[in-house]
Amino acid sequence: MLIENPRFWRAGAISIVVVMTALLAMLTIDTLADINAGGAHVPVYTVINRNIAYRFDPGRGFDVPSIGEKDLLFGRDYTEQEATALIEKGKLVIQSRACIGKARPI
Q1: Of residues 89, 88, 47, the one with CA closest to residue 65
Q2: How far apart, in whole angstroms, are the C-alpha atoms of residue 25 and residue 15?
Q3: pLDDT of 69-95, one tens digit each?
């Protein structure tokens, strides 16, 4: 019987791995454009120069972020390069804080 043949199961496993790897690669490439700054889901970093608040969206049924008029961060208007550097530094601070509680005493 075909089902009892180990080659059948090996071919099935290999084909599933190949198809899922190709699907994962396609989804990753498709998502990268959306999750980078300036993509469909992430605004450019100069958004720190604007008022950001959450407002209720009755169509969706929950609060969504809304970008308002100019509201300077620390009273300063940041350029795109300065805003990117500030965000990168903020990411490093968050990562370093995540590591502080993980250290084991000697």
Answers
A1: 47
A2: 15
A3: 998 888 889 999 999 999 899 999 988
3-state secondary structure (DSSP) of residue 35: helix
Count of H-run helices and E-run strands, the chain: 2, 2
Instruction: Tell me the average pLDDT across 19-39.
Output: 91
Q: Which residue has the tokens 């509201």?
A: 71
72 touches 49 (CB < 8 A)? yes
Give residues with Cβ within 8 angstroms of 42, minimum separation 6: 34, 35, 36
Look up residue 45 and give its DSSP letter: G
Closest CA to 48 of 22, 93, 81, 11: 81
Place of tokens 């490439």: 29
| CA–CA dist 94, 99 (Å, integer) | 9
Name the one residue in this structure whose structure tokens are 């958004």: 47
Q: How far apart are the first and last CA of the chain?
A: 61
Tokens of 4: 């009892």
